[in-house]
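Throughout our pipeline, every protein is held as a single compact record rather than as scattered files. Nothing more is needed to write down the fold, since each code stands for a local backbone conformation. The record that follows is passed on verbatim for readers who wish to inspect the format.
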Amino acid sequence: MARPPITDDELIARYGPHLNEAPPGGWNAGLTVDKVVNTHCCFCGQQCGIKLKVHDNAVVGFEPWYEFPFNEGKLCPKGVKRYLQGSHPDRLLHPMERDATAPGGFRNITWDQALDKVVSAIKRIQAEHGDDAFAMLSGVSLTNEKSYLVGKFARLALHTANLDYNGRFCMVSAGTGNKKALGVDRAPNPWSDIPLADVVWIAGSNVAETFPITTSYIWRARDRGAKLIVQDPRVVPLARTADL
């Protein structure tokens, strides 16, 4: 892929993880915000609430959503930086196709050109091999609305029965295990029960780094005197503080 029109030093200066403090006056000093939109962070299954600040139809920052019942305004580093994806210089704004003569081996094409190429290829392949020659495999970080559109496209546009997602390798097995152990394929209790627990047992989950907001619920339980058991072959962060 072609190099982004920005140097590595500039990229790190703007988006690097070392930026732990806002510059004088804040990130949006002097910027008038047109509106604030309530939404979710979709980087993990916790779906934390977040308020995005919009200026000139572009997301320019965020605010804590203190009233949201799960994260109560708290966000992990992924949620804090989530809005920067929209303006990141490495984001592709146009369809691209391979061209050995173009810089980086790709050249921009129009959306109409891209759609025509894709539709033509789909029709040709399905004419030769049938509708089920195609499969849709979705990924993570999708909202419910995006997941709905993936399914709708597979069934109504491609007419294929082959639809799956990456959870086949993780959440499907977890759901099966939960159903055998707990009677349902997901946690049978709300997160608000965690601070009331006398014992918190974490098996094979690096909560502190993959679901950081959940860690705050565990600390509340520990503040009440709860014991923490961590079962993991790795020395994950929570294991360093566990009773067992």
